[in-house]
Amino acid sequence: MILLRHGQSEFNVRFAVDRRDPGIVDPPLTPLGRQQIGQAAEALAGERIRRILASPYTRTLQTAALLAERLDLPVLVHPVVRERFAFTCDVGTPRTGLSRTWPDHDFSHLEEVWWPAQEEPLHALLDRAALFRAEMAALPDWSDTLVVTHWGFILAMTGERLENGEWRRCDPTGPCPEDVTLRH
């Protein structure tokens, strides 16, 4: 499967200045973020992708929408691939708000408030990644899946730190990364 980090968000721009939480709830993509995903869509156009899974955050849904348009595929919302809850940007939009904004997506499997109430410990993120690995490994066509997700989730899946708009292949049948740390 392919793991793609969402394009640059409003949070990413402000956080990069001084590494402090700017207090932006469920931030959208920036124009640069949209450009990054346009470039990723071009690079992915030749890949065999039959399914797009996306985290329920606005930045990933916007990223997935740009890719879905280019690749002519529907988007399936999958909360397991959400970001590790650690900053204000990880407060999501309630299910009813998502349904109004994205009427073509199915959010019926989400709770109204689907993100955690407090910071998610690393072991919980790693457990979610292991659950997702097992779920994907059970599918005969896992290699045809594009997952639009986040920095922390990709780190838990691969041990790699990706920039906005970057992507990596990930074999869910392979081993989990051995040593995952959140900070350098």
From TrEMBL:
One of its GO terms (cellular component) is cytoplasm. InterPro entries: His_Pase_superF_clade-1, His_PPase_superfam, PG/BPGM_mutase_AS, PGM_Phosphatase. SUPFAM superfamilies: Phosphoglycerate mutase-like. The lineage of its organism: Bacteria, Pseudomonadati, Pseudomonadota, Alphaproteobacteria, Acetobacterales. This is Histidine phosphatase family protein. SMART domains: PGAM (SM00855). Keywords: Glycolysis, Isomerase. GO terms for molecular function: phosphatase activity.
